[in-house]
Amino acid sequence: MNHEYYMELALAQAKHAWDLDEIPVGAVVVYEQQIIGCGYNQTISTNDPSAHAEIVAMRAAARHLNNYRLTNCSLYVTLEPCCMCAMALIHARIKNLYFGAFDYKTGACFSCFDLIFNKKHNHKIYVQGGIKQKECAQLLSDFFMHKRMLKKTKNVR
Fold first, then answer.
1. How many CA atoms lie within 13 A of 13 on its CB side?
2. What is the C-alpha separation between 90 and 70, in angstroms, rounded?
3. Among 75, 80, 130, 136, residue whose Cα is nearest residue 108
4. Which secondary structure element, helix H or strand E, spans residue 148, and what is its range?
5. Do residues 78 and 102 lie in contact, with contact meaning Cβ atoms separated by under 8 Å?
6. pTM of the predicted model, to two decimals?
7. How far apart are CA 25 and CA 36, in angstroms?
8. What are φ and ψ of residue 47, in 5° steps?
9. Do β-strands 73-79 and 96-101 pair in parallel, antiparallel, or remain unpaired?
10. Which among 78, 52, 47, 70 is positioned nearest to 140, based on CA atoms?
11. pLDDT in tens, 135-144
12. N or C: which end of the chain has fewer CB within 10 A?
């Protein structure tokens, strides 16, 4: 599997989120080397706290497969999943998780919490982080810098 290729597609989803003034996180679900679900953060535009990129992509993939179990699927996401998304990945039975940037505030795989690898889960997910890490992290940094500049400019007026 070409991890960089799929992460580029996830980055394209993240850039779409930015265009909609959402936090730029994107995700794609891959099954048998085919994209079966795409998503980007939509929490603000949909007023839905669960509309993270991973959840949106998994919902699309589940509709595509007509099954809530996403066994033998891989999820590519630009940011390490949070606790909510990590548990959704486990419940969906995702086989592989590949992410870009580490999330040192709310990451639930390596950085902050260790939910994915909890021994109490009967489902195990293969996880690899750091794919196109610089690009994924830079997109988020640029977004928040842009937001701070807009806020500063607004306060000056």
1. 27
2. 10
3. 80
4. helix 133-156
5. no
6. 0.94
7. 18
8. 55, 45
9. parallel
10. 78
11. 999 999 999 9
12. C
